[in-house]
Design goal:
Blueprint (H helix, E strand, L loop, with lengths): L4 H12 L5 H8 L3 H17 L6 E2 L5 E2 L2 H7 L14 H14 L6 H8 L3 H16 L4 E5 L3 E5 L2 H16 L4 H9 L3 H18 L1 E3 L1 H20 L11 H5 L2 H9 L8 H12 L3 E4 L4 H22 L6 H20 L9 H18 L1 H7 L5 H17 L8 E5 L5 H14 L3 E3 L5 H6 L6 E4 L8 E4 L6 H16 L8 H11 L5 H16 L11 H4 L5 E4 L5 H14 L5 H10 L8 E2 L3 E2 L13 E13 L2 E10 L7 H12 L1 H9 L3 H10 L3
Parallel strand pairs: 7-8, 7-9, 9-10, 11-14, 13-15
Antiparallel strand pairs: 1-2, 3-4, 5-6, 12-13, 14-15
Helix pairs in contact: 1-3, 5-7, 5-8, 5-9, 6-7, 8-9, 8-11, 10-11, 10-13, 13-14, 15-16, 15-17, 15-18, 16-19, 17-19, 22-24, 26-27
Length: 680
């Protein structure tokens, strides 16, 4: 009788932890009470068919496990591989193990008899097995002369072998399968275990338990492949200078001292197995090896503190733990030897809340290592940090997570993101995303801000790209009430004016209404930081202002407006071309308050330095039914340096009286004086 994978997992869990409750099983395996009950029916049927005692339950729902079952699943008790029928996924791993370690030709009959299944079952399993090897750019082939084999790069075969060994070892009776299907003798494994202990002494460290058990099998199978002539030929993967100068390279000689004629590339690969092994403890790490690593991790922790609004207790202790873990991780990541750790599912449930902050804080380490960090490695770092917070009694008041979606250019999206960050300091904001990026994103979030409707199951707030202070106040009230259920009172300006009119004569009602809106907005909203690097008057100067009566087209307007920046070397011709390509016509999305158009492109499209230039058109250009008289070209090199100037430009665009005055002026310096006045 076959025991399915789900029932097998539940059986192992209950035997290893008889005190577990039904509710805990439901939560862990995401199953209903009915599904759990069905699995136990199958488990007991399987136990009965194999002459084992059934699992029983007390009236209180506790499991009663016969001691014989404890013995059956005890890790150190040896059983023949035939006493358990693996699932389809497990059989696929066993097939791969045989293909990667066997010294003889393998046929369908060989797999069928070894796995105790029919040939048709093996053929079905082969389809699933092929899907696994596809992920390593390998292929399973068959020939009458040589049987089944895996073809492709030896480097990729080694990566697959390491992952398969780890997966099989974690299976029920995994070590028994490895011994049975790889042909490694107990004597050889015992000898390699003793040599591993010598390596530990040589390196003054202690490997984690799984590595000390699994690495001897890895080395034994690698030596078999080397002896058979399956050698690494694409040695460009390995940096000889980097690895040969390590103590691990010297220690690797201990593991291969009984093997003759091991090529240099193979010695380096075995060195990598030591370098990428997780370490439980170490007496020392050479300072010259870890100085930059430690610095990058220190900067990452500082970034985490800033984003999470906490200060680590015993920060140096946490840093040392991370350095110890990240030294082998450095080599795993660089040489793409990271595996999908089985701990990840459990960890993601326990520490998911801080995972996104950890991921966002690792940029200094990514810069140091020169590549992105795999999700499983990020999760391990999350474990270190989350565990440290728990052990030191710290808690993070986790912020709600927000996404800003903007379908338009870089500057507009950054301005929108900056505005919302200032407005909602209690939220954690991801970097602004385009609609396509948002649709592809897997980030966890609680709310979305967007100027257009987007598909989401979370709270969606439709927000104009450019909002006044009073609109900010209204938005804040709406969001806080929706997210937290709090009513933040907003002064009703109309009612306030009605009260004033009872006791005083109001001659300019609309002006009073605007003044009151501005006043009460300032009482609630934080002032935008004035510590930005550039003001509007710093960037738009008389030298970057152009006056024209009219232009033939929007395309020409962009070229003329950008000319001062091009002349000063702030942008290249490519940047102008990109703006014209990106905005073939004047889109309302890039017009501030129907007064100022702001064409722009991305920094990588040809920006050499931060800058702005202004074109004033006496006749104006039509945008819909409205004429636009001012075009400001923006050249941004990052998200921050131009933001203060952008905010000032946005406020200026809202002032219709000032804009009308600027329309009448025909001198650059007078226009600049107005800009300067409103750049404070």
């Amino acid at each position: 009788m076959h025991l399915d994978e789900r029932s097998n997992l539940i059986l192992k869990r209950v035997v290893s932890n008889p005190g577990i409750s039904n509710t805990e099983l439901e939560r862990k395996y995401h199953l209903s009470r009915r599904q759990i009950s069905y699995s136990f029916t199958k488990i007991n049927d399987w136990l009965k068919s194999n002459n084992y005692p059934k699992i029983q339950r007390t009236n209180g729902g506790k499991f009663i496990i016969d001691p014989l079952l404890m013995e059956l699943f005890a890790e150190k008790v040896e059983h023949s591989a035939g006493s358990y029928i693996p699932s389809e996924k497990e059989r696929a791993q066993l097939v791969l193990l045989m293909l990667l370690s066997s010294e003889e030709e393998l046929s369908l009959l060989h797999f069928s008899s070894s796995l105790s299944v029919s040939k048709n079952t093996v053929l079905r399993d082969m389809k699933y097995t092929q899907k696994i090897v596809n992920g390593y750019h390998l292929e399973i082939v068959y020939s009458r002369m040589y049987g089944y084999d895996i073809v492709g790069s030896e480097w990729n075969k080694r990566k697959l072998l390491i992952e398969v060994l780890r997966t099989v070892y974690d299976m029920y009776q995994g070590e028994t399968y490895i011994q049975a299907y790889t042909g490694t003798s107990r004597e050889e494994i015992q000898r390699l275990k003793e040599q591993m202990e010598k390596v530990e002494k040589r390196l003054a460290l202690q490997f984690i338990d799984q590595k000390i058990k699994l690495l001897p099998y890895t080395i034994a199978i690698l030596l078999k492949r080397i002896k058979k002539g399956n050698l690494i030929k694409d040695s460009y993967h390995i940096d000889y200078e980097e690895l040969s100068d390590t103590k691990e390279f010297e220690a690797a000689e201990i593991l291969i001292e009984d093997a003759a004629c091991i090529p240099k590339e193979e010695r380096l690969f075995i060195t990598l197995q030591l370098l990428t092994s997780n370490v439980l403890s170490s007496q020392f790490l050479r300072e010259e090896e870890t100085l930059e690593l430690k610095s990058s991790l220190k900067n990452s922790l500082a970034l985490f503190e800033k984003k999470a609004c906490i200060t680590f207790k015993e920060k140096e202790k946490l840093l040392q733990k991370l350095v110890l873990h990240m030294k082998p991780a450095y080599y795993r990541i660089k040489y793409q030897l990271t595996t999908n750790y089985s701990i990840i599912e459990k960890v993601s449930e326990e520490f998911e809340a801080i995972h996104y902050i950890v991921k966002d804080s690792l940029k200094p380490f990514e810069t140091y290592i020169g590549c992105s960090i795999p999700e499983s490695e990020v999760m391990f770092i999350t474990v270190f940090i989350g565990g440290h917070l728990i052990n030191s009694g710290e808690t993070i008041q986790l912020k709600k997570r927000a996404v800003v979606v903007c379908p338009n250019g870089v500057s507009i999206s950054h301005l929108m993101e900056h505005t919302l960050r200032d407005l909602f300091p209690e939220f954690y904001f991801y970097e602004a995303l385009s609609i396509r990026e948002f649709e592809q994103s897997k980030a966890e979030f609680d709310m979305v801000f967007s100027p257009v409707p987007v598909q989401t199951s979370k709270h969606l707030f439709i927000v104009e790209q450019f909002i006044t202070d009073f609109q900010k106040l209204q938005l804040r009230q709406r969001v806080i009430q929706t997210i937290f259920g709090l009513n933040t009172s907003v002064v009703n300006i109309e009612q306030l004016i009605s009260v004033i009119e009872k006791y005083a004569k109001v001659d300019q009602k609309s002006q009073l209404q605007k003044a009151l809106q501005d006043y009460f907005s300032l009482q609630v909203l934080n002032e935008t930081s004035k510590n930005q690097e550039y003001s509007l008057a710093d960037l738009i100067t008389p030298e970057t202002i152009v006056l024209r009566d009219q232009v033939e087209s929007w395309k020409e307007a962009i070229s003329i407006a950008a000319a001062p920046l091009l002349h000063k070397g702030i942008i290249t011709e490519a940047y102008i071309d990109k703006m014209q390509e990106q905005y073939p016509s004047m889109s309302p999305h890039i017009v501030l308050r129907l007064n100022v158009a702001i064409p722009h492109a991305s920094p990588e499209d040809g920006v050499q330095a931060v800058g702005m230039s202004l074109l004033k058109l006496k006749e104006g250009l039509l945008c819909g039914e409205q004429k636009v008289h001012f075009i400001v070209v923006i050249a941004a090199i990052d998200k921050k340096k131009h933001l203060n100037a952008m905010l000032q430009l946005m406020k200026l665009a809202e002032m219709n009286g000032v804009i009308n005055e600027m329309k009448r002026l025909n001198e650059k310096y007078k226009i600049y004086e107005i800009i300067k006045t409103h750049s404070i």
